[in-house]
Amino acid sequence: GHNHPDVANSYHNMGVVYDDQGKYDQAVDMYDKSLQIRLSVLGHNHPDVAWSFGSIGVVYRHQGKYDQAVEMYDKSLQIGLSVVGHNHPDVANSYNSIGVVYHHQGKYDQAVEMYDTSLQIRLSVLGHNHPDVAWSYHNMGLVYHRQGKYDQAVDMHDKSLQIRLSVLGHNHPDVARSYNSIGVIYERQGKYDQA
């Protein structure tokens, strides 16, 4: 029938494809159909409902509808806090997603606050040597770079780099991304040989 979690999953998966194709209105339509089924079958306080809100937030972010994206991410966050508590990777991901939006909006202090909250949860749950922890450091480095806080930015990117080298090895795109980020900052500082 029309009101089953598996049907909701199908709509959700179609939303993922539309989002990947850049067909954002169709993506939101599919995610919303999935959300409505999940709300009616699973209730308002379920991880799959949080997932739907988060996915809609991603599309809004891609569209540049930042206030709507934050609203969706916050709904996802509130469910996560209620269901799994503060110290969970899903909650860390929600804080990170809100940080990404603030970053795009130029709200750098708020972005750092969200990224740092995400980082602290990830450190607590995943340990110091995990790719998600590296991403938190990387994101904070990007914001510090935008703020012109170059030494702090290099410090964050270097922490990210060390984790990535340890976990992913020397020949991984994320390692290259870290080196590139540090190089760009050195270039901005006029440290051309280091860049």
Number of beta strands: 0
CATH architecture designation of the largest domain: Alpha Horseshoe
Share of helix, binned: over 70%
The total of helices stands at 9
Content-based structural category: mainly alpha
CATH topology of the largest domain: Serine Threonine Protein Phosphatase 5, Tetratricopeptide repeat
* Largest beta-sheet characterization: none
State the name of the first-level CATH class of the largest domain: Mainly Alpha
* CATH homology superfamily name of the largest domain: Tetratricopeptide repeat domain
| Strand and helix order | HHHHHHHHH
Describe the overall structure.
The protein is an all-alpha fold. The chain has two domains: 1-85, Alpha Horseshoe (Serine Threonine Protein Phosphatase 5, Tetratricopeptide repeat), CATH 1.25.40; 86-194, Alpha Horseshoe (Serine Threonine Protein Phosphatase 5, Tetratricopeptide repeat). Helix content is 82%, strand content 0%. It is built from nine helices and no strands. The protein has helices at 5-21, 24-42, 47-63, 66-84, 89-105, 108-126, 131-147, 150-168, 173-188. The longest helix has 19 residues, at 24-42. The radius of gyration is 18 Å and the shape is elongated. The model has no long low-confidence stretch (mean pLDDT 97). Kinesin is a microtubule-associated force-producing protein that play a role in organelle transport. Its main location: cytoplasm. Belongs to the kinesin light chain family. Oligomeric complex composed of two heavy chains and two light chains. Keywords: Cytoplasm, Cytoskeleton, Microtubule, Motor protein, Repeat, TPR repeat.
